[in-house]
Amino acid sequence: MRELCAQCIVAFLATVSFAVLVNAPRSEFLCAGITGTAGWLVYCLCLRGGFSAVGAVFLAALALAFVSRIFAVARQCPATVFLISGIFALVPGAGVYYMAYYFIQGDNQAAFESGFGALQVAIALAVGIVLVMALPGRLFRVLAPGKQGRK
User: Fold this and answer.
1) Distance (Å, rounded) from C-alpha 50 to C-alpha 59?
2) DSSP summary character for residue 147
3) CA distance 16 to 32
4) 59: nearest Cα among 70, 71, 44
5) CB within 8 Å of 123: residues ≥ 6 apart
6) Is the dihedral of CA 52, 37, 135, 139 positive or negative?
7) Per-residue pLDDT, 132
8) 63-123-39 Cα angle (round to 5)
9) What is the pTM (predicted TM-score) of this model?
10) What's the rounded Cα separation, in Å, for the pair 1 and 42?
11) Which pLDDT belongs to residue 150?
12) What is residue 102's predicted lDDT score, i.e. its pLDDT?
């Protein structure tokens, strides 16, 4: 449990740091951090529950996009402000790195396996985000605190 809390704190700090890097509005740093933490928490809990990395990323992307849309309505800000910062922890950068590393080392089989795994995670991330972004906006206007009845 202590490790999970530490990971969530690091996910929050990493997400806020990435929000600074992509020049998100300063007033949205807290919400961006919460979004990234929510995605990472779902990912970790899914892995502990026996899901594959691809399944865990898919469910985390659903949660991440859902929280992003709620914050977008509540804060009257584009969802991408929260979404782009929030996916930072879930992007399969290490898989792409190891694919290139194994390729340079001449281990084509390991490069293929690493690259294919990174591709699967990237597709799961994209599909999860698209599914939530396709939901009607009125759903999020109802769920956002203090925004009921707005059209």
Assistant:
1) 13
2) -
3) 6
4) 44
5) none
6) positive
7) 95
8) 20
9) 0.88
10) 14
11) 45
12) 97
**What tokens does 100 get?**
């290139």
Of 59, 86, 91, nearest to 71 by C-alpha is 86
Q: Name the token pair of 67.
A: 């929280």
Secondary structure class of 28 (helix, strand, coil): helix
Residues in the chain: 151
Tokens standing for 82? 């929260």
* Locus of tokens 């584009």: 78
Tokens of 126: 């994209």
Q: Are 146 and 75 in contact (CB under 8 A)?
A: no
Q: Which residues contact 115 (CB under 8 A, 6 or more apart)?
A: 95, 96, 99
CA 87 remoteness from chain centre: 3
Q: Which two tokens stand for residue 112?
A: 């293929």
146: its two tokens: 């203090």
> With 60 as the cut, is the pLDDT of residue 63 above it?
yes
Distance between CA atoms of residues 99 and 30, nearest Å: 34
- How buried is residue 136: exposed, middle or buried, by Cβ count under 10 Å (0-12/13-18/19+)? exposed
Question: What is the tens place of the pLDDT at every residue in 111-148?
Answer: 999 999 999 999 999 999 999 999 988 888 877 766 55
